[in-house]
């Protein structure tokens, strides 16, 4: 929360850390010294647009009608790759959670831990 602008690479690293380590927005914010709202915004942009969503797009952008078909397709491929990566990481996290829940059930801890 220092007011220092984060680069694209820093934002990407923070979002990937948030996903990989299953942090809460608050944990990620405190760990990286940025605001909760920044983490929330970056994660949602990453989910929706992939890594491209974390780029600083302020100012005048390139009009879409000037973009070539190849540029549009490349951007779409990058977005789909990022969404796929997000879903794979989310899937892995859910598998780990299911495995932990299964271990708790087998030990009779499911009622205590409300799983």
Features:
mainly alpha; 115 residues; flat; single chain
Query: How is the biggest beta sheet arranged?
Result: none
Q: Give the averaged pLDDT, no decimals.
A: 84
Number of domains as seen in the coordinates: 1
Unreliable stretches covering 5 or more consecutive residues: none
Alpha-beta content class: mainly alpha
H/E order of the elements?
Answer: HHHH
Number of strands: 0
Helix fraction bin: 55-70%
Distance from first to last alpha carbon: 35 Å
User: With helices defined by DSSP (H or I, 4 residues minimum), what is the helix count?
Assistant: 4
Percent of residues in beta strands: under 5%
Shape: flat
Give an overview of the whole structure.
The protein has 115 residues and is an all-alpha fold. It has one domain (8-106). It has four helices and no strands. Helix 3 crosses helix 4. The longest helix is centred in the C-terminal third of the chain and has 38 residues, at 69-106. The chain is flat, with a radius of gyration of 18 Å. The two termini are 35 Å apart.
Summarize the topology:
Elements: H1 8-20, H2 25-32, H3 36-49, H4 69-106
Helix pairs in contact: 1-3, 2-3, 3-4
């Amino acid at each position: 929360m220092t007011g220092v602008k984060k680069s694209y690479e820093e934002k990407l690293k923070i979002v990937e850390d948030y996903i990989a380590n299953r942090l809460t927005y608050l944990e990620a914010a405190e760990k990286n010294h940025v605001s909760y709202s920044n983490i929330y915004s970056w994660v949602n942009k990453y989910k929706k647009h992939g890594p491209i969503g974390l780029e600083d797009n302020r100012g005048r952008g390139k009009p879409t009608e000037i973009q070539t078909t190849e540029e549009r397709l490349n951007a779409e491929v990058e977005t789909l790759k990022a969404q796929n990566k997000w879903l794979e990481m989310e899937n892995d996290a859910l598998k780990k959670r299911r495995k932990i829940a299964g271990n708790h059930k087998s030990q009779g801890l499911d009622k205590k831990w409300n799983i």
